[in-house]
Amino acid sequence: MKKILIVEDNKDSSEIIGLFITKIGHHHIKAKNSKEAITLAEAEEPDLIFMDMELPDVDGVKTTAILRQNPKTSHIPVVAITAWISALWQEKAEKVGIVTYLIKPISPQVLKETIEEYTRSSLTPKP
Predict the structure, then answer these.
(1) CATH number at residue 28
(2) Disulfide check for 53: which of 44, 82, 86, 105 has CB 3.0–4.6 Å away?
(3) Residue 64's closest CA among 16, 113, 27, 101?
(4) Is residue 43 part of a domain?
């Protein structure tokens, strides 16, 4: 069972993603803004983070950049989940180390495949 942090300010989106994660047998934690995301990522050390790009305090790209600078969270894969279809934002996301960019709405199958793909490496010991 993997631990996945969902960073999403839209309650409905957060609930749906959380239900999918639970249904496929993983545990999830939720953050509704950048500050909560950073605090929970440090405290919980999840195996994967689903990061919304548009958060109420700091955007997902800047939040990921902060997580990358912290030795406790720098190894955690971050997947962008967004409604923003923009090459510029995708480029910014890649520059800060976001591993992939998923456009909403996301099917349960894509969510499952993404979790499997990016949590395989988390079987190795954390630094």
Answers:
(1) 3.40.50.2300
(2) 82
(3) 101
(4) yes
